[in-house]
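Protocol step 4 of 6.
Sequence for FAD-binding domain-containing protein (Hermanssonia centrifuga) entered exactly as in the expression construct, tag removed. Do not edit the line below.
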Amino acid sequence: MAASPAKELRIAIVGGGVCGLMCAIALAKNGITAQLYEAAAKFGEIGAGIGINPNAVRILRDIGVLNDVLAKTGSNRPNRTGWMQFRSGMQDSELVYDYTTLPGQESIGIHRAAFLDALVQHIDLKSCHFNKRCIRVSESPLSTNGNSELTIHFADSTSAEADVVLGADGIKSAVRPFVTGASTAEHVKFSNTICYRGLVPTEQAKSAGMRLDFSDRPMCFLGQDKHVIAFSIKGGHIINVVAFVSDRTVPMGEAQLPPGQPAVVPVPREQLMKEYEGWGSDVLALLSCIDKPDKWNIHVVYPPLQSYVKGRVALFGDAAHAMLPHLGAGSGQGLEDAHLLAKLLAHPQTSGENIETILQVYDEIRRPRTQSVWEGSMRAGEIYEGYGISGSSREGLRKDLEDLPEFVWIRELNQDMQDATARLQQLGVFTNED
Ligand SMILES: Cc1cc2nc3c(=O)[nH]c(=O)nc-3n(C[C@H](O)[C@H](O)[C@H](O)COP(=O)(O)OP(=O)(O)OC[C@H]3O[C@@H](n4cnc5c(N)ncnc54)[C@H](O)[C@@H]3O)c2cc1C
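Step 5 output, structure tokens:
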């Protein structure tokens, strides 16, 4: 395509979840307006909490949205000082491992809708297009002057043209088939893990007999093939609860849900209580307060994609690497992707002429990182549920838990951009001038 500075490129983002929004905001802060196409009628998130871990907090700060996110938590600083306290899920709730903080590591527990609200304040709604469900992306053939155009086709029979398409449309991404050449079914698999989610008023949990305090940091209750995560949101008034159940009798990717079964279904509380029969009184007290649990059939991107990029189309967030949630790292990885994409697109040496190589380098840097976090999340679930390599004794658990999340968190903010710049200089795409 013709040489044009990046600021003249028409950049489209498909999907306005946290990752798509953050990419659009980061670009806008660098003077680049991307057009954002969202399937829903407005920005929205599910009624649940989310943990934003240290690597993601650093990105929020760098992009300039952290204070607004914190304001939604009613605080002016990240509200957690450590990662998780791991306890037995059985009667005594015995402490197994306490992941206290390391210097500079801070994280946030927040309601998802509040998180999204904080981000939306930073976006110009004139560049956001709602009720635009992408059904596919196509590329017009190259013309004699070397130009080609990407077209995003929507379910309402309209379409939009772009020079660069960034797919952040989540696990069922309609952009992904353009990149992979494969159908959604080939890369989206049931993870053999389900979870029950609910929000519980802290006072209600106490009245039901819950003795533990979640205000300082999340807790993970460990058990065989099951575990429960609980953390405070809304200034400590609400506890976000997620109770997981896994089936390891079949390898990942082999179990199929009955056709047409939705990913999320409301279930009676009795079903949840039955799953956790025999567990300790703290866990049971917490679960008994979930009024109407939602059962999630967790899907993941599997097998991993060979590339996140084809030509001038790139995937990021769950569209590229939806993972099990056991490290609370999924959106954090998507934010790392968004951060790098925005920095690369805003670089003064990026142009229409070199954009394809630049996106290839994005893929080279982000794919190994996100896929290792994908594997780490799987490993974390195995440890929590009795299948860690050191076994399920207290000592074995402690050994396996000790270093688990560090590789996710301890990441220099600009590490990816430094690596990408070095690679682009090596390829002769960037010079040392900027
Ligand atoms: C139980 C559970 C707990 C989790 N806990 C955490 C946690 O604590 N911390 C963490 O970091 N991560 C967590 N995650 C992972 C996290 O939720 C995801 O990684 C994150 O939401 C992905 O964001 P995204 O923007 O890529 O995708 P999504 O949030 O799925 O957003 C996709 C957006 O695209 C839109 N869209 C979809 N299809 C189309 C289309 N065809 N055309 C246009 N728009 C479209 C959707 O409406 C949506 O707005 C958890 C996941 C689960 C299942």
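Step 6, annotate. The pocket of flavin-adenine dinucleotide is lined by residues 14-20, 37-40, 50-51, 133-134, 168-170, 174, 195, 242, 296, 298, 317-318, 325, 328-332, 334 (CB under 6 Å).
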